[in-house]
Design goal:
alpha+beta, single chain, six-stranded mixed β-sheet
Length: about 170
């Protein structure tokens, strides 16, 4: 847990943090203007508890008093080619009233501390070029790579891989 001069507390969500988790979903829905993804079909409490008990999902909330004002969702990915892990920042948002105060930077620094303790060798994040504040933040903290991103649909049937036990 980290506290800054504005009394903003940064903490990783763990089992039992259902209320904070729900507030984090609402923050993401509002910040990304995407209620369909984040608020239309919220997961059951048992699902959330299992999620919060999983080590490969890292959720960090920035709270000012009882209000969640920022949050970060990341995934720890164990690599196959070497015994190492990467951390992928999937979502990062700060409420409009609290932007430009270092909250996003401190969320990333909190994640970096967790990543360091876990022995991760890199943290990654994707930013869309029209999102100038995000691009500016990530340019300040890391180096940019030019990549292409593709969404590949998952077929509704079981696909072509035979996953029958042998």
């Amino acid at each position: 847990m980290k506290q800054d001069r504005d009394q903003i507390i940064y903490s990783q969500l763990t089992t039992g943090d259902l209320k904070t988790f729900r507030s984090l979903l609402n923050l993401f829905a509002e910040a990304f203007d995407d209620a369909e993804a984040y608020a239309s079909s919220p997961p059951r409490n048992s699902y959330v508890e299992d999620l919060l008990d999983t080590s490969h999902i890292i959720l960090i909330a920035a709270k000012h008093g009882n209000d969640v004002i920022g949050g970060l969702a990341a995934y720890e990915m164990k690599k196959f080619e070497k015994e190492r892990t990467e951390i992928y920042i999937y979502d990062l948002a700060v409420s409009g009233l609290h932007r430009r105060r270092g909250v996003a930077t401190n969320l990333i620094k909190s994640l970096a501390s967790i990543a360091s303790r876990r022995g991760a060798y890199v943290m990654m994040v994707q930013a869309d070029p029209p999102d100038e504040p995000a691009v500016a933040l990530y340019e300040k903290l890391g180096s940019r790579e030019e990549v292409y991103h593709y969404d590949i649909p998952v077929p509704k049937d079981r696909g072509i891989i035979d996953d029958t036990p042998r």
